[in-house]
Automatic annotation (TrEMBL):
Note accompanying the cofactor annotation: Binds 1 Mn(2+) or Fe(2+) ion per subunit.
GO terms for MF: DNA-binding transcription factor activity; transcription cis-regulatory region binding; zinc ion binding
A family per Pfam: FUR
Cofactor requirement: Mn(2+); Fe(2+); Zn(2+)
Keywords: DNA-binding, Iron, Metal-binding, Repressor, Transcription, Transcription regulation, Zinc
Top-level taxon of origin: Bacteria
Residues reported in the UniProt entry to bind Fe cation: E95, H112
Any single GO BP term: regulation of secondary metabolite biosynthetic process
Organism: Roseburia faecis
UniProt-recorded name of the protein: Peroxide-responsive repressor perR
Coiled-coil ranges from the UniProt annotation: none
């Protein structure tokens, strides 16, 4: 069992209800007033632990910093190649992908993660004008 930590709880709470999928640095900036002695390394370690425990999601972005999502339920994300925003995609989780992948794989498929990329609605509008 993992010992409870006020700092870890504050980090988790910081992510709850946010939909901007912040970086570790953004989380750090959000809680450093409440915990002035907290280090960025502590934030990184706690985000990694919370992700490993399945309490949050870590979203790995190619060419950018990892982003974090307080919603641990299976869902998909979109990353804009222009402005860098990360957002949830409103679509049902495709659980059958696990079964399809398992049919082609001798190991055990437990879950999957999909990150879509392209232009967000705002950047798409800017590029069409």
């Amino acid at each position: 069992m993992i010992k409870r930590s006020r700092q870890r709880e504050a980090i988790r709470q910081c992510l709850t209800g946010r939909y901007d999928h912040p970086t570790a640095e953004t989380v750090y900036m959000s809680i450093k007033d409440e915990f002035p002695n907290i280090s960025l390394g502590t934030v990184y370690r706690n985000l990694s632990l919370l992700s490993d425990l399945g309490e949050i999601q870590k979203i790995t972005i190619s060419g950018g910093p990892d982003r974090f999502d307080g919603n641990p339920a299976p869902h998909y994300h979109f990353s804009c190649r222009e402005c860098g925003c990360v957002m949830d995609l409103d679509m049902p989780s495709q659980e059958q992908l696990n079964q399809i992948a398992a049919e082609q794989f001798d190991g055990t498929i437990e879950n999957h993660s999909i990150l879509f990329s392209g232009l967000c609605p705002d950047c798409k509008k800017k590029n069409t004008h």
